[in-house]
Amino acid sequence: MALLFHDDDYDLRTRQTGFRRYRQLLSFYGFHWWKVGMLTLLGSLPLVIGIVLSVLYSSLLILLPASLLGGMILGPFLAALYDAVMRGLRYSPDNWWRCYLRSWKQNGKASLLPGALLGLLLGSYAFMFYVAWMLNLRQDARSVIACLLSGLLLILINTLYWPQLVLFELSGFDRIRNIILFSAKYFRRVLGVTLLQLFYWGLYLLFAPWSLLLLPLLGVWFIVFLSELLLYDRLDAELKINERFLELEGAPFEDETDTENPDTF
Q1: Which single residue of 11, 22, 88, 194 has CA 20 to 30 Å from 222?
Q2: Confidence band for 239, pLDDT divided at 50, 70 and 90
Q3: Which helix (H) or strand (E) holds 233?
Q4: Closest Cα to residue 11, out of 25, 88, 249?
């Protein structure tokens, strides 16, 4: 079963549904997403190094600037990853590297602030958990629930904010409003995707450092793809993603030369 490699049984002109769509997308776009995911991991190194140094020296003076700066560096990389995944979900035949550079040009500036906020929150979580572990602080049920809920909220916002950032020119207020309305309308689906991501990253933390060996293979890209795949039909219904891009870019595969070689995506 071709999950990460090209499969001639799944022509992109014929859109599949259900698990066959999952296979089809991974068959054609999986390797390209993996390459973008590796670049995203490289972009996260300044943030990771800054958080590790702040933890080792138990210094908030290192944590705050390192998290903000590291998050700002990560922002354009993360935006480019979401852009690549969303292009694949609407079956874009464009070359992945050209799209990657285009994303940096279009979304680089807009991604700096949300990247900085994300870096600050991730750094704060890491520092807080390290201090609690070092001091052997007892956590009551309310503290654990509060941590889980705040983590779920962060994942939810992150899952729905970045696709809007790379797809549409909206204000931050409009993006947050869309997140609230979309989450209220599709509460069970959004909650399920959020819990899936929490479980995914929880496994990485639970089985670290051995689980880190999977980062070069799955890294960030796979859970981003899986989450957005599960939400895409609802997002398209509310935001008219395919309709807008058909107006702007036309129907995919109009040029037959774009699909002769799948490596030209």
Answers
A1: 11
A2: confident
A3: helix 221-239
A4: 25
